[in-house]
Amino acid sequence: MTSPKELRAQGATPMVEMNDISIAFGGVKAVDKVSVDLHPGEVVGLLGHNGAGKSTLIKVLSGAYQMDSGEIRINGNKVEITNPRDARTHNIETIYQTLALADNLDAASNLFLGREITTPFGLVNDAAMEAECRKIMGGLNPNFRKFSEPVSALSGGQRQSVAIARAVYFNAKILIMDEPTAALGPHETQMVAELIQQLKAQGIGIFLIDHDVHAVMELCDRASVMKNGQLVGTVDIDDVTDDDLLSMIILGKKPEAAAA
Amino acid sequence: MTETTSQPIPEQQKRGLFQQLELDMRLLGMIGAFVILCIGFNILTDGRFLTPRNIFNLTIQTVSVAIMATGMVFVIVTRHIDLSVGALLATCSAVMAMTQTELLPHVLGLGLNHPVTWAVTIVVGLAAGTLIGAFHGWMVGYLTIPAFIVTLGGLLVWRNVAWYMTDGQTIGPLDKTFMMFGGINGTMGTTWSWIIGLVAAALAVAAILNGRRAKLAHEFPVKPIWAETVICGLTAGSILGFVWILNSYQIPARRLKRMMEAQGETMPEGLVVGYGLPISVLILIGVAVVMTIVAQRTRLGRYIFATGGNPDAAELSGINTRMLTVKIFALMGFLCALSAVVASARLANHSNDIGTLDELRVIAAAVIGGTALSGGIGTIYGAILGALIMQSLHSGMAMVGVDAPFQNIVVGTVLVAAVWIDIVYRKRLGAK
Fold this sequence. Notes:
The complex is a heterodimer of chains A (260) and B (432). With 260 residues, chain A is of the alpha/beta class. Chain A contains 9 helices and 10 strands. Chain A has helices at residues 4-10, 54-62, 84-89, 107-111, 126-140, 156-169, 186-201, 213-219, 242-251, and strands spanning 16-25, 28-38, 43-47, 69-74, 77-79, 92-95, 174-178, 205-209, 222-227, 230-236. In chain A, the strands form 2 sheets. A 6-stranded mixed beta sheet of chain A has the order 6-7-8-3-9-10, with helices on both faces. A 4-stranded antiparallel beta sheet of chain A has the order 2-1-4-5, covered by helices on one side. Chain A is globular and about 60 Å long. Chain B is an all-alpha fold. Chain B has a domain at 27-186 and 278-405: ABC transporter involved in vitamin B12 uptake, BtuC (Orthogonal Bundle), CATH 1.10.3470. Chain B has 17 helices and no strands. Chain B has helices at residues 17-21, 25-44, 52-77, 85-107, 117-141, 147-166, 176-179, 189-217, 225-248, 253-262, 279-297, 299-309, 311-316, 321-347, 358-368, 380-400, 404-429. The chains are: A alpha/beta (260), B mainly alpha (432).
């Protein structure tokens, strides 16, 4: 398979292009003419302070927010994403920072929420969903046991597994991860890192929002840095150091050497 | 991601007798409270409380509130409230009373007891209730006005729309067939009641076995055979026991004689006929079954509970929560109209104060039945049991001779205590 870097060098059409996206809340420009793109098998990190607009930008792609201006292209075609259902039809899946789980339902119900397996009579088939859930979890988190309890009874890592399983199970092509390791211990963080490598190898494109510069350096191919709603710049990870990224985040200046 | 090793299913451990039955402890607790209540009243009334006659009356008095309580479960589960159900019941009752006594006889020329009158009346009533409910839901879901406000306004509006439509007068008598939905005027008779009871028991057992088969097909743990047999036996036993009690309430000889004379027959000496299942109770059972299936086995139900547990998660999972709100309130409106049929048929007329304070009884029934106002939790059978417990309290205290003010004081106290016990119980379990 051609690497993401080669694809970019060849000038191939990215699988996601977000061009000149702007969105304002009550006069405050949360995102101001930001453009980012993503190739198959690529991990693009989104960095910035709290309130820099990373989550807002990405929620435009996942359908949770609607942009005021700009355009989104999937595989070169302009698309309209006005709600989470639209995003799902374009195989865009999101793991939210808040995990977005219904605490009162069990793991299988959360995993299949919005796309339940049904019997021929149109009733939900809980037994089939639980069986599928056990299968998926077997590969993802072998320590997962609590299938018949509401997810409120699960640990942070287990809840994270459910959220990840939900995003990955339905043939995601484009994956958005909003601080996927924020609530996790070291072991589970390592698990997520391995998962990202695995998904990358399958040609899935990933937007990774993270505070941790080291994690981004380790996992990502490129990084886009935002400050005060504007894009500071997008750099190739191979061309920059941790310090370069930090100065982009803090000072909002793009290093001279790394013009990606 | 492509691994197919399934998660191992834990070995069944040796557990207590009750745990092996896998009974819902909460349901058991409520049934226990209900049984203690009944036995207590039975002792205080020298055995008058648990007679077939009183049980018959108790069930038909519970139907109207219980039907609405099942809908209220969905409303409360999604973190809304409906304060307008009593007023909506009054409007639907007024619409139906006017349809059968004014509109159909005078405008369309169909008589009061014309064979289609009752059917047209009910269709009109149900449509009115559903539309008004959907309108409430639209204001809550799309205009984002809090449900408390929408239905508080609705309480005033619909109570007085009903008043305006009927000029505040009592409308009656109603259509004879229509009145069969009220309870004592429409029962199935003993033979049909037994047939219905047997079919229901068979279906219930079949449903239990079907669930077991589905679990076995995926090699999930199942209860031991003896536990399954006990559950089947209990279920079938309580259905048939209920039918037996209602069948034992005999039509008084004088009333039976009049009924037979009306049909041009003479009553043979010593003839004994039981009432059997009232049609209104059959309607409630039908509502309970359908609503339980909706809650547990349909996408609509799954989305209702997901939205109650975490509205944001539901929205982000692609669920159209606004439309869902419209559906829930439309369903609530439909059930209010159904209750209006039963309530006005039972009273044999439409009176201006019909359904007054029902909103509080319905909410109390749902809450006593374990529906949490914080959303996401509630059961249909709980709400019906809650309605039954409240009606038993009222009726039992009236039989014992407790003064009216004390009756309400006791019911109010029970409501608060029941919710407190529920909170303590949930904390013990460690759930939210």
